[in-house]
Every structure is written in structure tokens, then in C-alpha cells.
Design brief:
single chain, alpha+beta, Phosphorylase Kinase, domain 1, SH3 type barrels, SHC Adaptor Protein, 5-stranded antiparallel sheet, 23 strands, 22% strand, EC 2.7.10.2, lipoprotein, phosphoprotein, non-membrane spanning protein tyrosine kinase activity, SH3 domain
Length: 503
């Protein structure tokens, strides 16, 4: 699954010092990829270095950004820094020749960058937003002074410098600086010193801070991108999958960690026989395949020739957000990170809305977390394209009562606004580290539509909200935000929020 450009950050302006003085598998059965004729833009903000090889030259020269060890017949292995010639562009896999060894084969397009461009520099991150820059720099492995240069979100054709800093009261933070351009093509952050190139600018601030929050140390660690899925490997043979570990069960069956063709770790969702028709299942899969965003779990392939049917997606190492928040690692997360999780989910949902879809089952159990703490929206089993601005559920359908908007429960009609309601309940799950919403009500998570109206909890009064969960009134229905808000007014940043801080 793949994602939309998030809203440009405008809450805190960047600092300026201007006032200072055709890949193929041997075993797969190839059928047409549902997105092969799509004109969708690649909206993955984490695919930092995807390029077009055919701009002006019949054969483009590229530089390898990462090591790649071929895993299929026909792959071309290479090392970081190798120079390659692109022979033919074919989707996400390109045919190339290594200019050092003379060998030819297929390479993943997101592992290379066009020669003699900024993308070949370790410190340049193309297409990364301000918020994603902060996520990268605050990730483990980076330290004070770690930095990156990225495209400016506010001024097209300009750049920004992002630097990891440390504040005794706020902890680790990221500072942003505008890199301004001169009419003659030069660059500067402070007008008292200018540079002919970005490389010269970086080298200067690596020697001395000269007004920055920190002297530049090392470039931000760049995670090796996920290899593209095999071209046209949509319907794959069941024998190519080895189910390694059962991860859980869902509406359609079980979820497994599996290995594809002995080399690629994936997640496999099985469908219980008789749950729905193959045609309906493929409808779901085709919807998932067309939704490409870095905050949505990506669908790779399906197995539908016989039951149980498999749906193969990218593997998310830390499992569901609901389970992760209850682990020791999740319990230690501070409020800013929980807010960041919520922002990531909002990015994915904004993309779904932009594509005129609804999710209908948005909750923490259907958000998956990666090894690098990236949240992605999963389980589109109830998602359907909207017709006439709403989707009316079929009679007898089941859905999560505690996350469903009252108008959807009463009338069985769902809109984008229904997902907004569910997102609000998800926020409650996140801020309370996975607590069940409306405790004591509706112990069963899913109910037939016909039974739902009688299960809607009454809306609380303002007084009830303010007095709920006090020591004198423990275990009441609603979470009382007042103690937390009072604490936030004293310490708005770096609050060591954990379950024992909650009322």
C-alpha cells in the first residue's frame, strides 16, 4: 500500500540567521498488476531517491546509494558507490549495466540516484517533509549535530538544513534553517558568509557552528528502502510461501509472519473458507493495491486459486499499535511521540479521503507499527469506494460498535465523517496506552447492525466529563483530561507520560 503528501508544516517557521552580523521470478504465476496502467503519483515520502532515467539521455548514468545483493536469477548485485548505466526502465525494476564489472541485470530503482546530482550525497534527502526530517533525525543512531539538507516545503527550488539539537528542558529536538540562494547561484544561511555550493556550506558548518545550534557532525542515518515487489507477481503460487509464525486472528481468518521464496519476510492474512466470495475478496485486494502511500500497509500479492485464500502484505515488525502500546517499549513513550503516531495515522487517512474511500474499521488494532516506529493503516476489509458520498452497509454486516459513529449505527450509512469519529476514539486508545474505550459497555467488540442502536452509550454532560475518574468516583466511563492538561500547562514539552500518570 502506498501514500499522500501530508499538509505542509506551518506551525513553527524555519530559523534564519540573516539578521546576524522487468523483474521476473522463476516460480510466480504472472498476471496483470491492477495498478500497471495507473497514473498514480508515487507519494511515498520515504522513497527518497527515485529518479527518472530517461530525462534527456537514452541511457542514464546512476550511482548506487546502498549495497544490493541479488536474490533472483537476472538480478544485478552492486555495492554502494558503484556507477551503473540504465539500459531500460521497467516500473520499479530497471535493466542496468555495472560500468565497473560490465555485468548486466535488474536493479531496484529506489537504490540508485542520477549521477552528478545532490541525491548522491549522503546528507541530501530529496522529498522529505519537515516533520519526516524530525522523525529521521530523532531516530536511534543519530546524535547531536546529525543533520540533513532537504527540499524546502515553503519555497520551491530552495533548501532547508535540519539539525539535531539537545535542550536541557525539552530533551532532543530538531532545529531548521532556511538556505537562501543568491542571484549568481550561491547559497547562504547567514548573509555575512556565502558559499558557491551546498557541499561548501556543509563543510564550513562541519568545522564550526558559526551561529547554528550545533556544529554539524554526521549526516542523518538513511534507512535502506524496502525493495520493490517483483514486477507483475500478483497471483503467486502457494508453495512460494512458508508460514513461520502465527501473529493473530482477524475478521477474515489468521495473520502469519511468512517468508516468500526463501528470501523476503512478509505478512500473510488468510481468509476463512466461506467468509466471502473470491470475487469479493479480490475486490478488497484490488482496492488495497491501488492505495499507495507510506502510511498505508502495502499489498504485495494474493493466492486465490484455492482456499484458504491468502493476501500478502509488507511485514510490520512491532505488530498492531494496540499491542505495541501495552509493551514495555510502548509504555515508555512520551506524549510527543504519541502525538506523532496520531499525526502519521492522520496523514494516511487524509490520503484515503483524497481518493474518495472510507475505511469503516479504523482503530488501534488495525494500525501496524514498523521497526522504526512508523505507523501504517491496515485492514481494509470493510473499505469500499464511496458512491453518492456515502456507503450503506448491507444487512447483517458486522462492525466495531465502540468505534462507529452514531449516525452510522442508527442508519447503516457511512461517510468520510464516520472515519473522523473513529479517529477520535483511536486518539483515546493512543493517549491511554491501549485502554478499551467505554469500559464496561459492549464487552463484545463487534455486533450486528440491527442490535447497535440500543448499545450506543449516552453522551456525557460537561460536568460529567470534568468530574469523571476522580479518586471519589473511580472507574467511571470517561477519561478525565483535566489532570493531564494541567500538567501540560506546566511542562508542554517532554512530558514523561506513562500509564501511571493517567487518572
Amino acid at each position: 500500500m502506498g501514500c499522500a503528501k501530508s499538509k505542509d508544516a506551518t506551525d513553527s517557521p524555519e530559523k534564519s540567521l540573516k539578521n546576524e552580523s522487468v523483474r521476473k521470478s522463476q516460480n510466480a504465476l504472472y498476471v496483470k498488476d491492477p495498478t500497471s496502467n495507473s497514473r498514480l503519483k508515487n507519494r511515498n515520502s520515504f522513497n527518497l531517491h527515485i529518479i527518472s532515467p530517461s530525462e534527456g539521455n537514452e541511457e542514464a548514468s546512476v550511482i548506487a546509494l546502498y549495497d544490493y545483493e541479488g536474490i533472483h536469477d537476472g538480478d544485478l548485485s552492486f555495492k554502494k558507490g558503484d556507477k551503473l548505466k540504465i539500459i531500460q526502465e521497467s516500473g520499479e525494476w530497471w535493466n542496468a549495466r555495472n560500468l565497473g564489472t560490465g555485468e548486466e541485470g535488474f536493479i531496484p530503482s529506489n537504490y540508485v540516484a542520477k549521477d552528478n546530482t545532490l541525491e548522491t550525497q549522503d546528507w541530501f534527502f530529496k522529498g522529505v517533509s519537515r516533520k519526516d526530517a524530525e522523525r529521521h533525525l530523532l531516530a536511534s543512531g543519530n546524535k547531536q549535530g546529525s543533520y540533513m539538507i532537504r527540499d524546502s516545503e515553503t519555497t520551491k527550488g530552495s533548501y532547508s538544513l535540519s539539525v539535531r539539537d539537545h535542550d536541557p528542558s525539552m530533551g532532543d529536538t530538531v532545529k531548521h534553517y532556511k538556505i537562501r540562494t543568491l542571484d549568481n547561484g550561491g547559497f547562504y544561511i547567514s548573509p555575512r558568509i556565502t558559499f558557491t555550493s551546498l557541499e561548501e556550506l556543509v563543510n564550513h558548518y562541519k568545522k564550526q557552528g558559526d551561529g547554528l545550534c550545533q556544529k554539524l557532525t554526521t549526516s542523518c542515518i538513511s534507512q535502506k528502502p524496502q525493495k520493490p515487489w517483483e514486477k507483475d507477481a500478483w497471483e503467486i503460487p502457494r508453495e512460494s510461501l512458508k508460514l513461520d509464525k502465527k501473529l493473530g486472528a482477524g475478521q477474515f481468518g489468521e495473520v502469519w509472519m511468512a517468508t516468500y521464496n526463501k528470501h523476503t519476510k512478509v505478512a500473510v492474512k488468510t481468509m476463512k473458507p466461506g467468509t466471502m466470495s473470491v470475487e469479493a475478496f479480490l475486490d478488497e485486494a484490488n482496492i488495497m493495491k491501488t492505495l499507495q502511500h507510506d502510511k498505508l500497509v502495502r499489498l504485495n500479492a494474493v493466492v486465490t486459486k484455492e482456499e484458504p485464500i491468502y493476501i500478502i502484505t509488507e511485514f510490520m515488525a512491532k505488530g498492531s499499535l494496540l499491542d505495541f502500546l501495552k509493551t514495555d517499549e510502548g509504555n515508555k513513550l512520551q506524549l510527543p511521540k504519541l502525538i506523532d503516531f496520531s499525526a502519521q495515522i492522520a496523514e494516511g487517512m487524509a490520503f484515503i479521503e483524497s481518493r474518495n474511500y472510507i475505511h469503516r474499521d479504523l482503530r488501534a488494532a488495525n494500525i501496524l507499527v514498523s521497526q522504526t516506529l512508523v505507523c501504517k493503516i491496515a485492514d481494509f476489509g470493510l473499505a469500499r469506494i464511496i458512491e453518492d458520498n456515502e456507503y450503506t452497509a448491507r444487512e447483517g454486516a458486522k462492525f466495531p460498535i465502540k468505534w462507529t459513529a452514531p449516525e452510522a449505527i442508527n442508519f447503516g450509512s457511512f461517510t468520510i465523517k464516520s472515519d473522523v469519529w473513529s479517529f477520535g476514539i483511536l486518539l483515546m486508545e493512543t493517549i491511554t496506552y491501549g485502554r478499551t474505550p467505554y469500559p464496561g459497555r459492549c464487552s463484545t467488540a463487534r455486533h450486528p447492525i440491527a442490535f447497535c442502536p440500543s448499545l450506543i452509550p449516552p453522551a456525557p454532560s460537561s460536568a460529567a466529563l470534568l468530574s469523571a475518574n476522580t479518586p471519589q468516583n473511580p472507574g467511571t466511563l470517561y477519561f478525565n483530561p483535566c489532570p493531564l492538561l494541567a500538567h501540560l500547562q506546566v511542562a508542554p514539552e517532554g512530558l514523561p507520560l506513562s500509564p501511571h500518570h493517567l487518572p
